[in-house]
Amino acid sequence: MIMKGARARWVMRVVALVVVTALLVTAARRLSFSRVLAELVVVQPLWMALALLCFVSILPLWALQWRLLATSTRTPRLRTMLGVVAMTSTVLNTAPMLVGEAAGVYFLIVEAGLARGAALSVLAMDQLFVGVAKVFVLATAATLVVLPMWMARGAQALVVAVALLSASLVVVAWRAEPLSKRASRWIPARLARLILTVGRALEPVRSPTRSTGALALALAKKLAEVLAILCVQRAFGVELSLGSAVLVLAATNLATLLPIVPGNIGVYEAAVVLAYSSFGISAERALGIAVVQHACFFVALALPGYRWLARSAATRAPEAAV
């Protein structure tokens, strides 16, 4: 069973790598890098600063969302949760696949004081609401512009994945106890108890109010990204419709679902270039926009976490020495 799971992950990575390579080759064939550099020279700093602010606003929205999803005897302070999501974002944007998710669970346990089951439930619910928000972005893009074929197919796969995750969490949330009892016959008792703990911690799934609030915050994060994309367009003197920004966001959401490359370097840019090709933007200008957009995204969402990581390391160093 373990071998089958490992083989499936290997196949998925190979398929994703082939897709990424195709995206990069398709984008690179159309580029003149001297013209790309010329495009970067004309960037307007004020619009870049506004794009950074839009991207930075994702962190407090994310902190509010995780605080809403956390189930604990003592609700973590917003400042604490802001540190948790900032550090998680740093790892997500600099480390290989699954390392960021594992780091998020660790920070929720160590920094926010959540139990392991509660931390796992927060991560699972976050993936669910982020997935629903991505589906919403794709649906919105489809109503505003014509989706390229590769995006339409990717959207179908994403809808299936989100539906499966949603069904799984609903079953665990409402049927945790019987599931735990049945699972105890086949798996170690500790893992069976973890199913029960996670199921109880999925309380927000059973609460329409908290679920609606978490989804609203997930959508607000996507709106912040759309506004940031529009600001980057203006920084290059490009004035396109709102649909263009939604399509670019949908493209990056799909292209970065499986973070094969740390920070999605190259993958992110290729997706943006392909998205802008639908609007007649030259490949050189599109790459310039993509580079600046990704840089703003990285500065806003990867760099702030280093402050909390450094402080956390400094705090725990004396404890380790004792």
Please specify the SSE layout and strand pairing:
Elements: H1 2-28, H2 33-41, H3 45-56, H4 58-69, H5 78-92, H6 99-110, H7 116-144, H8 149-183, H9 189-201, H10 203-206, H11 208-235, H12 242-255, H13 267-277, H14 283-301, H15 304-321
Helix pairs in contact: 1-13, 2-14, 3-11, 3-14, 4-5, 4-11, 5-6, 5-15, 6-7, 7-8, 7-9, 7-11, 7-12, 8-9, 11-12, 12-13, 13-14
Structural description of this entry:
- By secondary structure, the chain is mainly alpha-helical.
- Helix content is 80%, strand content 0%.
- It has 15 helices and no strands.
- It is globular.
Explain briefly what this protein structure is.
This protein has 322 residues and is an all-alpha fold. The protein contains 15 helices and no strands. The model has no long low-confidence stretch (mean pLDDT 83).
**Structural class by sheet pairing and helices:** mainly alpha
Straight-line N-to-C gap: 43 Å
Order of helices and strands: HHHHHHHHHHHHHHH
What is the residue-mean pLDDT, rounded to a whole number? Answer: 83
Number of strands: 0
**Cα Rg:** 21 Å
- Please give the largest β-sheet: none
Strand percentage, roughly?
A: under 5%
The gross shape turns out to be globular
Number of helices: 15
Unreliable stretches covering 5 or more consecutive residues:
none
The percent range for helix content is over 70%
